[in-house]
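Note to self: keep these together.
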Amino acid sequence: MTNPAIVAIGLHKSYGDKTVLDGIDLTVPAGSVFALLGPNGAGKTTAVKILSSLISPGPASGTIHVAGHNLATAPQAVRAAIGVTGQFSAVDGLITGEENMLLMADLHHLSKSEGRRVTAELLERFDLVEAAKKPAQSYSGGMKRRLDIAMTLVGSPRIIFLDEPTTGLDPRSRHNMWQIIRELVTGGVTVFLTTQYLEEADELADRIAVLNDGKIAAEGSADELKRLIPGGHVRLRFTDPAAHQSAALALHDAARDDEALTLQLPSDGSQRELRSILDRLDAADIEADELTVHTPDLDDVFFALTSSTTVPTQLKEDAR
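Structure:
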């Protein structure tokens, strides 16, 4: 798809007098991972349920297109193009993994032979062949999650909604799930991801939106979001005290540590700022023994954008 996989304009949802989504706009490029972050109760799952046609948007919502189809006028076409894996496994623990897959094939109206072929391929792909004949209730958390996504792929969806897919998994299972998500995107699938793990969004997402108080507080790549938050700096270390002294004179705005022989300058970590620092050192014929760039991480971004205190106006403007 050359057009965006998802476009939502003015997405709104209220329950009684509580506004969950307050007119948010989302555009998800096809063949990418888009991560929606936010505190518990921010409306992430509500957004997924609306975009996947599980619940209706509010009457004040604008237009929503998913896989090129208008959600309001062609919900069946949207459902045919998407797959959804929720926070809680949809696996039936009383039947085997293979039977879960075949049941999903029946729901997608695949023929018996096609259903068995697709089931065999996906069980192989997700390393579930040995466990295929065992009741799913005997599976580990990671195995159930893999089976859950395998079941989602039976219908060959172009867009997959993953609502906190690694919650409760151990670190090894979580990293295995990351690899599966990367492989899906390499195969052309668009992934809409909600997660409570900021490291996960940093690792996987091409674009990230931070949802707070029913609005999008910021959107961009992980690096773009990190540059919004103050506190980034470049640290230069020297082994020669004379070189350290000369560099301090050349970089007069740097904070110096004479004991550690280091200098520290505020920086957003951009190539332009690094080049400026290095040019100033070159002009003074000085070479640092070590240069490290420190930028805020997504935790810093998340806390700055979702704290109970008011987000500074300039930060809001920069985030947009």
